[in-house]
Amino acid sequence: MPDIRHTHILKVHHLSLSFPTRKNPDPAPVLNDVDFSVRDGEILGLIGNSGSGKTMTAMAIAGLLPEGAVITGGSIKFAGRDLVSMSAKNRRKLAGKDIGVIFQEPMTALDPLMKIGKNLEEVLIAHGEKDKAKRHDKICSMLKTVGFPDPESVITRYPHQLSGGQRQRILIASAALMSPRLLICDEPTSSLDTVTTVQILGLLKDLCRSMHMTILFISHDLSAVKNFCDRVMVMKEGRIIDKDNTMDLLSHPKNGYTAELLTNARLDPRILGLERAMVDYTKSPILMTHELNAGYDNARSILKDVDLKIYPHEILGLIGSSGCGKTTLTKAILGIIPHTGDIKYKDSHIGAVFQDPVSCLNPAHTIRWHLTEPLKAAGIKLTKEETEKRILSALFEVGLDEKYLNRRPRQLSGGQRQRVAIAMCLMLDPKLIVADEPFSSLDASSAAEILKLLTDINREKGTSFLLITHNIHIVRQIAPRVVVMDSGRIVEEGLTGDILTSPKSEAAIKLLTAEKELHGSN
Question: Which of 416, 390, 385 is nearest to 403 (CA)?
Fold first, then answer.
């Protein structure tokens, strides 16, 4: 392969792609005349709303297109070779070896039944490394490179025994094992806290330099793009509509769509019309925990004596680094895992909205089925007319209409799926909804819409929220009170303005320092 450093390692030329079927042999293109190139050693950002074609572009380059996808025009040239005309056998040889991919959700990208060592070993075996000792040494060396000081311990663990940030490091290690020339990163920081995000971006930049890799970085976190990428492209409806060097494009956008993306990313409460309910802290809490302890085995407790109070009409922010115990706390409150200590709740139902609406919805069933299930699970018996009235009411409240009832989750956008998840909560009219990272898998526009929806529900229905988020900016905008967790304990709590202005705990100081580094002083 010729050395083309300091030239263009990747050229995507007038690429078009669609999903033809027997019923519709000539559908509208998913990718429409996509044209760009990536310089050798460059970090190129790709941004745009959900459904704009970002991931499909990446999968076309990686040779991982879903079944039914057909490239109808154009070419993809990598290091001078046309990938579109290449045989499937030769294309597979490139995958992993010359072109690596880091996916968005590390929990689903790793085999949960395999230990970390085995997950990584499969990459080397697939590319012909037969010597077990060499595989072991290469894996341990790469784990040290991505920030694990004790790789021998890590390789014996299962994915669920690692935090989100640790799992993402494993995916980076997996993608970098074969020293690929091009690394495609599809939303690699969307599920991570600010501290871990800064670390992961720093790690990727170091790998880019030390291993002479080129990176195509797909993200809806415009702050991450701004501080990480050399150039940025903007996609809309399957086309590249804007591209420039990062600072010029994000600081002085000339395209109206790019300017709209930046406006939505700021989540300005004045622009979005955010208005939450007023909270009376003299009233009794709607939920209380006392000396709450919980874990996943008898040997180790993740939560340690957690005392928590959530008041009527309150949006309580819960922040902390990956692995601090936030999600374990929500699972204990929801009764998903066993616990010791007391949980007192004044109502019979608690709603839950999780990070990834794709994995929370059953792909085999319609939206109508999903909205009926909460009633069945709660043992609530209604007439057909009463059920239909409640379904339509919940659907309308989240901004959807009845045409969605017979659709399946795959036919909805990420924001629409998250609206369905919220509607499922509203079917039981809970006084409290636990929202665990409800924005992190969404683009800026969808996140802004869901944020406004949650504040509207809080104000109009008086519903309380326990809002777990890595986005401190969101907490600053809508949560009057915030709780900080670290190592399974609550280390600081109080009025949001006080804690985010003058933090006392080391955990809060680290989060705010990372936020400033990632997002700037604003």
Answer: 416
What's the pTM? 0.81
The rounded distance, in Å, linking the Cα atoms of 329 and 348 is 19
Q: What are phi and psi of 164, to 5 degrees?
A: -60, -40
> Do β-strands 339-345 and 287-294 pair in parallel, antiparallel, or remain unpaired?
antiparallel
> Residue 13 is encoded by which pair of tokens?
């030329």
Three-state DSSP state, 215 = strand
191 by Cβ neighbours in 10 Å (0-12 / 13-18 / 19+) ranks as buried
- For residue 498, which of 508, 487, 488 has the smallest C-alpha distance? 508
Strand-by-strand arrangement of the 43-47 sheet: 99-102, 182-186, 214-218, 43-47, 231-236, 239-245
The answer to whether 404 and 367 have CB atoms below 8 angstroms apart is yes
pLDDT digits (tens, 9 = 90+) for 336-374: 888 999 999 988 899 999 877 777 899 999 999 999 999
Q: What is the DSSP letter of 403?
A: G
Handedness of CA 440, 443, 444, 447 (dihedral sign): negative
CB 214 within 8 A of CB 41: yes
139-149 average pLDDT score: 90
Cα separation, 441 vs 447, whole angstroms: 9
19-28, 363-372, 392-401, 471-480: which range is least confident on average?
A: 19-28
pLDDT tens sequence across 377-412: 999 999 999 999 999 999 999 999 899 999 998 888
Is the pLDDT reported for residue 10 higher than 80?
yes
Shortest CA distance to 165 belongs to which of 140, 144, 136, 190?
A: 190
Two structure tokens written together for 140: 């341990």
Count other Cβ atoms within 10 Å, centred on residue 6: 9
| Residue 481: Cβ within 10 Å count | 21
- Provide the token pair at 134: 């060499």
**Residues facing residue 70 across a β-bridge:** 18
Cα dist from 356 to 110, 352, 417, 418, whole Å: 16, 12, 9, 8
- Give which of 8, 2, 4, 16 is closest to 84, Cα–Cα: 16
Question: What is the C-alpha separation between 425 and 375, in angstroms, rounded?
Answer: 10
